[in-house]
Amino acid sequence: MFKILHEGESLGTTLFESGDPDTQSVSGAFNNLGGAIALSAWIVSNGGTEDGEAVYVVFTDAFSVTTADGVALDIKEGTLIAVPDEGEAYIEIVLRDEQDYQRYFPEHLSAVVSGA
């Protein structure tokens, strides 16, 4: 499990269920207290963008992603997305370092190798 922080405060968690080793990106459902409706309001109040039924915010330096043990991932870019009408929230990030991707997301690498 990974924790998403904004200015050191926890926003929620994700398992990063999907990944693309070629781009060093991972994504997954985002779990937060209050669900997608509360998250969408938070995103809008923090400079996010509304795009149809979805709202999203692109990561700034105020955001961080850590392992359950508190180790910060070196993120190149990230986006937090909420679709309140659907009750869904997602997160996507791209890591800077290929070795970090291999360390933290070996299941995505093995899925590519096995053809899953």
Notes on the structure:
- By secondary structure, the chain is an alpha+beta fold.
- The chain has one domain (2-106).
- The chain contains 3 helices and 9 strands.
- The strands form 2 sheets. A 6-stranded antiparallel β-sheet has the order 3-4-9-8-6-5. Strands 2-1-7 form a 3-stranded antiparallel β-sheet, with no helix packed on it.
- The model has no long low-confidence stretch (mean pLDDT 93).
Report strand order across the widest sheet.
Answer: 3-4-9-8-6-5
Number of helices: 3
Order of helices and strands: EEEEHEEEEEHH
Q: Quick one: how many beta strands?
A: 9
Mean of residue pLDDT values: 93
Based on secondary structure, the structural category is: alpha+beta
Outline the biggest β-sheet: 6 strands, antiparallel
* Tally of discrete structural domains: 1
Span between termini: 22 Å
